[in-house]
Write a structure and sequence with these properties.
The chain is mostly beta strands and 785 residues long. It contains 9 helices and 42 strands. The protein has a 42-stranded mixed sheet that branches. The longest helix has 28 residues. The radius of gyration is 52 Å and the shape is rod-shaped. The chain starts with a helix and ends in an 8-residue tail after the last strand.
Length: 785
Amino acid sequence: MSRLIYKSILIIFVLFLAIIVTGTLILFFYQDKFINHLVSDINTNSDISFTYSDIKINTYQSFPKFSYAVADFCIEYTKDGKSDTIIYSKNFNINISPFQLLKGKILVNGFSANDGKINWHGYYKNFIETESNNNQSIIVILSNLKFNNFIINRYNNYGKKTLTINAKKINMNIASDKSISYFKFKNAINSFSYGDILIEEPFELNFEIYQQKNLIFNNIELYFKSLQLNGNGRIDNSNEALNRFRFKYSLNSTKDIVFNPNLDFLKNTDGKLRGDLYIKLSATNDNIDSLVINFLSEKISYKYNNQQYNFKNINGYTLFRNNFKEHKTYIKKAEFRYEDIVSYDFKAKLKGSENIAVLINGNSLLSKTFENKGFGIRATGPLSCLLNYNPSTSDITFRKVKGKLYFTEDKNISTEQIISKGNVDIDNNLVISGYLSSNSSMVNFNVIQNDIVNVLNHKADLFPSIKMWGEKIAYNDFSDLIVDNSNSSDSSSINAKLEVNFKSFEYQRLLLKRFKATGVYIDNAIKIDYFTADCFDGNISGKLVQKQNSYSSNIWVNNINIQTLFRHYNNWGQKLITSENISGQFKGLITLSFKTNPNNEIDRNSLQLKSDIQIVNGELKGVNQLEKLSKWIKPEELKVIKFDTLKNQISIRNKKIIFPFMDVKSNALSLSLYGVHTFTNNYEYNLKINFSNILKRKFLNYHSKDNMHSNNGYINLYFKIIGKDSNYNIQWINKKAFKKKIDKPETIEPDTLHIKQHKEKNTSESGTNTKGYKIEWDEFTDTLK
């Protein structure tokens, strides 16, 4: 019995093996007929049809799998008489398991396609649709698909292209039955466009899809430049409100996400972002219905008009709607920095796409340091502004600015005893009010700039009105604060209208009382159109221009007390004639220019002066050097010498004070002179004395003021005084020597190498000196007049 059972089992096994071998041989030797029958069956019983130009069978190498190489392969989808090409490939290779054919299935395990296209339309229900009807006899399962150098296009129901992917490499694994499909993609993409999103640089995109009634996306990974993104999502065919994706992201450079024209402004930014984002697709999945981006950043910089603006500790979110056409951003907290301006507790709202409205509110800190002046100020307070930003042109248009700040000196910067306090009010106009005090100045000031919004929009000039008044001010303090002495061609300045009124105004050693001035500060220069002040018991007025360390001025002088002037300037450093010896008033016009050194002292090499002045009621008294004339002039007349009005056009250049020819008329004697006096206190004067009048006073007791020079028998004495400081020599000269440089006194160079202390030498009353000098008689009309 057991032997019979054994033989029966053996016969059954042999028959089963024979059937398998026979089936395999049939599939092996009749592959082409089977493929043609398969393709014909699919084309007949499905909306999908297959075509190809050539097929090569490589089963010998891949057995037990069947391997085929197909050229010009094309899959078309036909619906309602309309055919669309779903897939085209110039060539592809496919491996099929023949044993699955016995089960009524085709298992494609290993598929590679090159140089092709995939076109997908919105009315396709699935990636590969197999209609379940009574006529369907074959189920197709695909796995391990590879596409190289493929272009994928997606079209909506109306035939409009909504998605284009230029893929370098796509790897797919698909597991599918009648109820569920599983897709796994690993893609290397060259370019990508979806709606208004355009990415034209390579990136990597990986994801998994579960398909039943809906599409579930898991493990989505995106690597694009410095952007890393991962998340999941779903597309619900029955409820479009559930078509959403959620991601977490990190971005090392904001410049790397400019994939939409409305994001072009990010080209001018640099910084890192991290956070999460939510995407909701449109009803037809053609566009992005809404995109919410939550963001955090420690620092982002933005460049505008070659200026860099820095944002720190940013926290907020951005909402895009209607495929990026609608936009809102809310910045919950941020810190803004630009040069000396700092805004903290900063909040902002942005709205719009083509023209973005921006509302900014925050408590602001503004800091200004006056370089090389040891002084700084700080202003704090609320500041808000409303502006529009155009992403395509990067233009900013201010709509409204409002703020109220309080400022004081920056104790961390100010090294001198400078105190400053005040307020800044901004509401259409900019108004700054406050005071500044130091050891040398006590200044109240008021700055008004009208229509500040148009100024910010470059529709009006920045030209504020500045008023300063108070007890006292030092000009150096005033100019140091507003004048840029850097000599830099890149330095920028604020033009302004100036109005000044001080009880006391000091420049160098010059002290002015009741000083008033009006002018402008323009092109980094102070231009005083008119000033007036009292000084030295008189008054001065005029104009002044200061450009960095260069000064020029026209001054009208009226009734300046010469004695007070000499006393104030310590007699100009000489002892020959001091404030104790001289008195009178002078008036006239003075034009001068000079530069200052880093110590704010006048550079004598640069000093130039022209004048047209008069000295009225001049007197010399107690001049010991005149006592030697007592032989010829009565001593009481020499004690106080009173001059008639003196006129001259004195000038200064090349470190010389130049005295042109002038007549000097007095109660004691009449003379004419010209000469120079250098800044080193060297001097040379050429004099002509009307000796005739002296003789009349001496011998004829004649007291009339006859100071006219004529040739009617008058006798003139000519001599030269050369000196240094209080030492001098007197040299007798003749008329020809006197006239030699009378028209060019500036050419005189005092020769003081042999100057010794002057000692009086006896001269004969006959009119000759010890050197044999002979008195000259002017027999012809005097040409010196």
